[in-house]
Design goal:
Keywords: Glycoprotein, Hydrolase, Signal. The chain is α+β, with helices and mostly antiparallel strands. It has two domains: about 100 residues, Purple acid phosphatase-like, N-terminal (Immunoglobulin-like, Sandwich); about 325 residues, Purple Acid Phosphatase, chain A, domain 2 (4-Layer Sandwich), CATH 3.60.21.10. It is built from eight helices and 26 strands. The longest helix has 18 residues. The radius of gyration is 21 Å and the shape is globular. The structure holds 2-acetamido-2-deoxy-beta-D-glucopyranose (3 copies) and fe (ii) ion (FE2). One 2-acetamido-2-deoxy-beta-D-glucopyranose binds next to helix 2 and helix 3.
Length: about 450
């Protein structure tokens, strides 16, 4: 049976699903938790978007039909389907995606979100700024000065952190991942092939590289500046073919499905949303567009005038939503519901100030705010809340010494900082949030703190 199905998959290679990834979503139960799981994948052709699932590998008796889309001619189809009404009583859900005629993926499995809002214990990895592979496997080919060229390093690695995530998964130490923006640095990919169009190939590579993780646990994402567009020489020279199709966070919004609709967040996109998991209310914020002064509200990361971006909601819509979402979470917390509110977004503290939401975070008692963007690690040390944590040391071609820790400034607090390749893990219980930063190379603990 196994042999037969792999022979079938080989013979229909064009339609074989790749890049299988999960995210929390679907209808919310009486405890406020998603009872579903989105699954997304890519195929070169356009078979139907079917997921079949069940409670054992041999019983995939439920089936759901999703849909697929292509955002760039010749670069495949991205599918999304929703596994619904997953029971709390089963330990694991098994599933495969694909199409009867064109072949199925292998069978993967995952754990449903806990059904209770208290008494739950779980762990997640949180980080931003993770590139794809390293400079040995993807050597930069653009002329470099001593060590960098336009801020791109000659020597860098995301492999250490990727390997650390694999071992955290294998030892059962993480239940899911929150990647707070700058996913794969695919817009920098031309550095290894200056004149070629590599954006899609590198995004595909990143997603396949992550599949062991993303197919077995939710991988939640927030938008970073590197998600905004393709601005490589090939994309600029071939604006009609590439550039215009890849601006305005298109790949980010087409490849991923986050529970925005479920949480009244950004419409049809992943720019802002929230969800509950166990005792925590998580809010994923948009530091890139849709507020006064947002750096990418008019144009994307390169600010090339014709690569327009932004306007995912009406004026003010995002911040109005954010306040209402935090207020509701705060009221639930005060009423003895969930214990914690965790906010996450791409840019660090100084952007929270520019967005004028620092007061909101204090008023509604946000416990922690996680960010990336500054390619290094820093954490505030006072007992004030929120605790601000920049977990930007996953490893990327822009990573340098923490010279530019964007946390510094009016906050005037002492910080713990590190410029090592690192992977963050948050253990959650009703009593505390235990955060630790692990050195991705040798596994030692760089920093740890209990948030009560
Ligand atoms: C899931 O449950 C909802 C509410 O009970 C129901 O309306 C819906 O049809 C169910 N979906 C599936 C796929 O069973
Ligand atoms: C994914 O899992 C397979 C099977 O255990 C392993 O051989 C492979 O190295 C893993 N990939 C990564 C990127 O860790
Ligand atoms: C960006 O995409 C959003 C969502 O599709 C759309 O509402 C907005 O108008 C787009 N912005 C630009 C500048 O094209
Ligand atoms: Fe960034």
């Amino acid at each position: 049976m196994k042999l037969l199905s792999s022979a079938l998959m080989l013979s229909t290679a064009l339609a074989v699903p790749s890049q299988v990834h999960l995210s929390l979503g679907g209808a919310v139960d009486s405890s406020g938790v998603s009872t579903g799981m989105y699954v997304m994948w890519k195929t070169d052709g356009q078979p139907s978007s079917t997921v079949r699932y069940g409670t054992s590998e041999d019983d995939l008796s439920e089936q759901a039909q999703g849909s697929s889309k292509s955002y760039l001619d010749g670069h495949g189809f991205h599918h999304t389907a929703l596994m619904e009404n997953l029971s709390c009583d089963v330990e694991k859900i098994f599933y495969q995606v694909g199409d009867e005629a064109d072949g199925w993926s292998e069978v993967f499995s995952f754990k449903r979100a806990p059904c209770a809002s208290s008494g739950t214990v779980f762990s997640i990895s949180v980080f931003g700024d993770m590139g794809y592979l390293d400079s040995d496997l993807r050597p930069p080919k653009i002329p470099h000065g001593d060590d960098t060229y336009h801020g791109l390093n000659k020597v860098w690695s995301a492999t250490y952190s990727r390997n650390m995530l694999e071992s955290l998964k294998n030892s059962g130490d993480i239940d899911w991942v929150f990647h707070v923006g700058d996913i794969g640095y695919v817009d920098d990919s031309f550095a290894s092939a200056p004149l070629k169009f590599t954006y899609e190939e590198v995004y595909d590579g990143y997603m396949d590289w992550l599949q062991n993780l993303t197919s077995t646990m939710p991988y939640m994402v927030a938008p970073g500046n590197h998600e905004s567009e393709c601005h490589s020489p090939a994309c600029i020279a071939q604006e009609l073919k590439y550039g215009r199709h890849l601006r305005n966070f298109t790949a980010f919004n087409e490849r991923w499905t986050m529970p925005s609709e479920e949480s009244g967040g950004s419409r049809d996109t992943n720019m802002w949303y929230s969800f509950n998991y166990g005792s925590v209310h998580f809010v994923s914020i948009n530091t890139e567009t849709d507020w006064d002064g947002a750096e990418e509200q008019e144009t994307g990361d390169s600010h090339i005038p014709w690569l327009k971006a932004g306007g995912f909601g009406e004026d003010g819509e995002f911040l109005t939503w954010l306040e209402a979402d935090l207020k509701a979470a705060y009221e639930e917390k005060k009423a003895g519901g969930r214990k914690w509110i965790i906010a996450a977004g791409h840019r660090p503290y100084n952007t929270i100030q520019e967005m004028k939401i620092e007061e909101m975070f204090i008023k509604y008692e946000v416990d922690v705010y996680f960010a990336g963007h500054s390619h290094s690690y820093s954490r505030t040390t006072s007992s004030d809340k929120p605790v601000y944590i920049v977990a930007g040391g996953a490893g990327c071609d822009e990573m340098g010494p923490s010279k530019e820790s964007l946390l510094l400034g009016p906050l005037g607090q002492d910080l713990i900082e590190s410029d090592k390749y690192s992977t963050g893990v948050l253990d959650v219980s009703d009593e505390k949030l235990s955060w630790r930063l692990i050195d991705s190379i040798d596994g030692s603990i760089i920093d740890s703190v209990d948030i009560l």
